[in-house]
TrEMBL record:
Gene name per UniProt: ybeY
Keyword Ribosomal protein applies: no
Cellular component, GO annotation: cytoplasm
Protein name: Endoribonuclease YbeY
Gene Ontology biological process terms in this record: rRNA processing
Function statement: Single strand-specific metallo-endoribonuclease involved in late-stage 70S ribosome quality control and in maturation of the 3' terminus of the 16S rRNA.
Length: 168
């Protein structure tokens, strides 16, 4: 794996013990396979495992949405800059930050009948694709493209398509 991931746990009492760092690395590897622009060795990303309360604060402050959400991503590079980033010349570049809220993630996983680790993997992947400049809120075509990338990467991880009707 080339992308460096810095993981912080600001709410360790919320997230159960587990191999979250290893999961994040596997997800980053799958993300790089479907979005090769993420496979630049100069890239660094941070991943925050936190609570609904902290996500609520971040969502209110940065997106003006006064509620918790499952995942937030904060890109630090424009897509064109990312795509044209020379992998061999220059210092590390901060790709961005991803934050996951345990309570929302756990509720959604339970509602879908999915393992918490599988749903967290999907949300981490979703965050990485946002950091790579993909956005499902721009148009239906962009949403379809991002969903297809997620399905392909999750399949690489052995995780079923979360969008199929059989998983809802």
């Amino acid at each position: 794996m080339e992308l460096e991931i810095d993981i912080e746990d600001w709410a360790g009492e919320n997230w159960p013990q587990g191999e979250w760092h290893a999961l994040a690395e596997r997800v980053a590897n799958a993300a790089q396979q479907v979005a090769p622009e993420l496979a630049n060795p100069r890239l660094v990303a941070s991943l925050l495992f936190t609570s609904d309360d902290r996500i609520h604060e971040l969502n209110r402050e940065w997106r003006q949405r006064d509620k918790p959400t499952n995942v937030l991503s904060f890109p630090m590079l424009e897509r064109t800059d990312l795509v044209h980033l020379d992998p061999d010349d220059g210092p590390p570049e901060m790709l961005g930050d991803i934050a996951l809220a345990h309570e929302t993630c756990a509720r959604e996983a339970e509602a879908k009948g999915a393992a918490l680790q599988d749903h967290a993997a999907h949300l981490i992947l979703h965050g990485f694709l946002h950091l790579a400049g993909h956005d499902h809120e721009v148009s239906e075509a962009d949403a379809d493209k991002m969903e297809a990338l997620e399905i392909k990467a999750l399949a690489l991880l052995g995780i079923d398509n979360p969008y199929s009707d059989t998983n809802s």
